[in-house]
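Changelog-adjacent note: as of this version, every example in the card shows the full chain rather than a window. The one below runs 351 residues end to end.
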Amino acid sequence: MDAVAALNEIAFWLERGRAATFKVQAFRKAAAAISPLPPEEVAARARNGRLKSMKGIGDRTYQVIRQAVEGEVPDYLTDLREKGAQPLVSGGASIREALRGDLHSHSEWSDGGSPIELMVAAAGVLGRDYLALTDHSPNLTIANGLSAERLLQQLDVVESINSGNPGTHPGLDDAQAADPVRLLAGIEVDILESGDLDQEPELLDRLDIVVASVHSKLRADGRTMTRRMLGGIQDPHTNVLGHCTGRLVEGSRGTRPPSEFDAKEVFAACAEHNVAVEINSRPERQDPPDALIQLALDAGCLFSIDSDAHAPGQLDFLQYGAERAERNGVPADRIITTWPVERLLEWAGAR
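Full-length structure tokens:
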């Protein structure tokens, strides 16, 4: 098999399994190191051992490349494929099968780790019909948020990908070819302390999907946070309220309690203004908590099950969100990411 594809697929399975970042990056870096070389040169260097001296190639990645150029599926990849054949979580199968897309993902343009094209290709392998690219807005400097100028540049990239999207990528095995994925132009825009959205309205007008989230001053008092969130929800550009409590329940960043706000008032506003409440699928977030999902259901809200993926393998985290939605009795038709893209875009444009 193609050596670059083998390395990237290994990274995908490791990301999906929540392996340590350094371990994933070893395979991503090795793939980047050999991708500029013609396949016959990669094979020659692997066979004569010169590949070992290349920057970014270690013992394990060399072994993977050597087996790939000899026409074998690398042993390490075979083992990961067998493990990956099992679902990430029991339950949620009916919702998982109904999901068509994902409205929250990040690329290397902000704080993700992979090129846009590789994220789209992985979404295709997973059977998605559409994927929204929602890199961060300028205020979130720690996440390399996009200025207006960079967002304009990204819109050109999105248009280019959709114009010639083959549904796969040279970093993935040709055997994994999938139908083309519609890449939606989007943003995860900060809800500022004023309640305003952190990007120029004229640019937000050009996007397919706007996910609005709070990322700062999460320990503000309930009245202040409620007022701030209502401002973001009432903005006509907002389609999805992202990870509404901001909590962290596990993971390398530690834990963080949920923000305090008037959930009934916030969800009533979401229902009134046709803003979907995100069920964030990241295991460390599990946001909103189950009790708030029930409040949002009672308020008549729509929902969006999203991966919040920062790497290709994390796109499969939708399984976690599907399980939580099913367990909480969320009807599939109230989950906008089960809708066909035409219905989704008509709904989003109505805002």
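Structural remarks: The chain has two domains: 3-84, 93-349.
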